[in-house]
Amino acid sequence: MSACNSSEASACSSSEVSVKEFLAKAKEDFLKKWENPAQNNAGLEDFERKKTLGTGSFGRVMLVKHKATEQYYAMKILDKQKDNSNLYMVMEYVPGGEMFSHLRRIGRFSEPHARFYAAQIVLTFEYLHSLDLIYRDLKPENLLIDHQGYIQVTDFGFAKRVKGRTWTLCGTPEYLAPEIILSKGYNKAVDWWALGVLIYEMAAGYPPFFADQPIQIYEKIVSGKVRFPSHFSSDLKDLLRNLLQVDLTKRFGNLKNGVSDIKTHKWFATTDWIAIYQRKVEAPFIPKFRGSGDTSNFDDYEEEEIRVSITEKCSKEFSEF
C-alpha cells in the first residue's frame, strides 16, 4: 500500500483507523498478560529431547516432543552456571529454519523477496513499539521461516519495555545503532536502524558494516558512511539512507510521522500492508520439510547431556518466579 492519492484517500484512512484500533486492542491484551502472566506446571520430565537446533553463549536450543500431546516444541536451555541448574523456555517449533541459513545458501535475496520479509518486520516493530517494547536483537539468525514462507521473530532475550531511553549495551555488533555504541542513551529508533542493516544484508548478501574486530565495525557504524552495491535500486538506496541515518532527528521511524514514513516510502509502493498482515500475499520461498518434527533445515550440532543439579540454590527466593 503506497502513499494515498485522492481516489484512495477514504480507503487509506479507513485502513489507518483499523490499524490503530488493532494496536489499541493488542496493547490492552498485552498489559493483561504482562500484569498477570500465565502459569504452567510442565516439567523437564514431560518432554522427550530429540535434537540440538542451535547453540549460543547462553546455552542451547533443542527440539523436544511433549510426551502427552506428541506436539513438537523448541526448548531453550539457559545455563545458570553458578548453581549448575538450568532455566527452560518452551516455545513453538518452526521447522522451516533460520533466514540466516537460507540467505547464506542462496547468496542474496531479490528486492521483491527482501521486501516481503522487510514488510513483516515493519509490522512487527509497529506492534512492539506500540507496547513500548524495544526488540534490540534483529538479525537473520533470529528470523524463522514457517510452513507458509512467512517469518516469525524469535529470541526476545534483549527485548525491554522502555517508555523513554535506556543505556544497556547489547545486541549483535553489525546491527548496533551508533547511539548504542556511543553510550548516549537510546530509544526505539535503534530497531529502525537495525531494519536498515537487515534489508541491506538481505539484498546484498552481507551487512553494510563488517570487519574482523568489533571495534572496527563500531568505527564504521558511527562514521555513517554506507557504500551500496551497484545492483541496488535507487528507491532501495534512498530508503536505506533514511534508515541508516546517524542523525536521530532525520532517521525514518523516529520522526513526527513515525512508521508511516517507512510504510509510504517508494520502495514499499507495491506492498499491501493489510494483505501482508492477513498472510494473503504469496511467499517468494517456502521451505521444504517432512512433517512437524523435521530438522533438515537446521545445522547439526554435537549433542550433550543436560546436567541438572540435585540441590537447587536460592529455591526459596525464586519460589514464585
Automatic annotation (TrEMBL):
Give the GO molecular function terms.
Answer: ATP binding; cAMP-dependent protein kinase activity
| UniProt-listed Pfam families | Pkinase
InterPro entries to which the protein is assigned, alphabetical: AGC-kinase_C, Kinase-like_dom_sf, Prot_kinase_dom, Protein_kinase_ATP_BS, Ser/Thr_kinase_AS, STKc_PKA
Write down the top EC class of this protein: transferase
Q: Among the entry's GO cellular component annotations, what is one?
A: plasma membrane
Q: Which topology term describes how it sits in the membrane?
A: Lipid-anchor
Xref: Gene3D superfamilies: Phosphorylase Kinase, domain 1, Transferase(Phosphotransferase) domain 1
Q: What does this protein do?
A: Mediates cAMP-dependent signaling triggered by receptor binding to GPCRs. PKA activation regulates diverse cellular processes such as cell proliferation, the cell cycle, differentiation and regulation of microtubule dynamics, chromatin condensation and decondensation, nuclear envelope disassembly and reassembly, as well as regulation of intracellular transport mechanisms and ion flux. Regulates the abundance of compartmentalized pools of its regulatory subunits through phosphorylation of PJA2 which binds and ubiquitinates these subunits, leading to their subsequent proteolysis.
User: What's this protein's family per the entry?
Assistant: Belongs to the protein kinase superfamily. AGC Ser/Thr protein kinase family. cAMP subfamily.
Q: What is this protein called?
A: cAMP-dependent protein kinase catalytic subunit beta
Query: What organism is the protein native to?
Result: Rhinolophus ferrumequinum (Greater horseshoe bat)
Q: What are the leading ranks of the lineage?
A: Eukaryota, Metazoa, Chordata, Craniata, Vertebrata
